[in-house]
Design goal:
The protein has about 270 residues and is mostly helical. The protein contains twelve helices and no strands. The radius of gyration is 25 Å and the shape is elongated.
């Protein structure tokens, strides 16, 4: 049976606001009633508000309350902290998501273990986000390390492993290593098809990404034949997305728009 130590009841980030409130109350007892008291209260209140904002940035208040009740090392509390980072990402705040992941990852590794699926999943997300915002000196090395660890524990067919492998392919393409990226995307498509299915969202996105890579390369080299093949391939991807994900799915809709742009540009490409 797993032994999970119960961490501090009060989240570290929220200790400063609580101490600030205590200092404000104690200080008010020694300040004479009058203008000086109002100055003291105004200054301390402003400081407490600032500290609360800083604390909420690291650990949202509802999660801090849950930690008070369950303990800082409770798996549900740690999971909630990691999910709060995901929520930041969904709200278009990747920097805040990275900040919260950096805060929770050491606690996940300490309380649940470095090979726990929750810890590994948070590591994958953290590397993905940090690599996207330029917070990693060598993002390919970092993602290779994550792929090695998560593949060893969860297996090569686990969705988190495949997500990390897809991320690596994407970064190779962004770094201009087109041939390596093409090979990596091909491997991703084969793996996701085998483990998740041909109609899985990740498989279809990987097919789309590979087609975009090939279309962009054809545009740079002026290869009209390769460009036409990429347009046809993307049409097949869109058909598969509409069948598997639905015509109104955001991924389907954005891919369809891209295909339409390519098709409209096709006469100019072929002259």
């Amino acid at each position: 049976m797993r032994d999970v130590r119960r961490g501090g009841r009060v989240a570290k980030a929220w200790r400063w606001p609580l101490w600030g409130a205590v200092v404000a109350v104690v200080g008010a007892l020694f300040v004479p009633i009058g203008a000086l008291l109002w100055v003291h209260l105004s200054v301390t209140l402003g400081a407490i508000v600032t500290l609360v904002r800083m604390a909420n940035r690291e650990v949202p208040f509802p999660v801090a309350v849950a930690q008070w009740r369950l303990g800082g090392d409770d798996p549900d509390v740690l999971r909630a902290r990691a999910l709060s980072a995901v929520a930041c990402l969904q709200q278009g705040q990747p920097a805040l998501a990275v900040y919260r992941l950096k805060s929770v990852l050491p606690d996940l590794a300490r309380a649940l273990g470095p090979d726990n699926p929750e810890t590994l999943s948070a590591r994958v997300l953290g590397v993905q986000l940090r690599g996207q915002i330029g917070d990693l000196p060598d993002r390919l090395t970092a993602v290779d390390e994550v792929i090695s660890d998560i593949g060893r524990v969860l297996g090569p067919g686990h969705p988190d492993t495949l997500a990390a492998v897809y991320c690596r392919a994407e970064w190779l393409g962004q770094d201009g290593r087109t041939d390596e990226a093409e090979a990596a995307y091909t491997d991703v498509i084969a793996a996701t098809t085998e483990h998740l299915g041909a109609d899985h969202n990740m498989t279809l996105i990987a097919r789309s990404s590979l087609t975009i890579l090939r279309h962009d390369r054809a545009g740079r080299t002026g290869d009209g034949t390769a460009s036409a093949v990429a347009v046809d391939d993307m049409a097949a991807v869109v058909d598969a997305m509409e069948r598997a994900l639905g015509a109104d799915d955001p991924t389907t809709a954005s891919t369809r728009r891209l295909l339409t742009q390519w098709q409209n540009a096709r006469p100019r490409e072929t002259g």
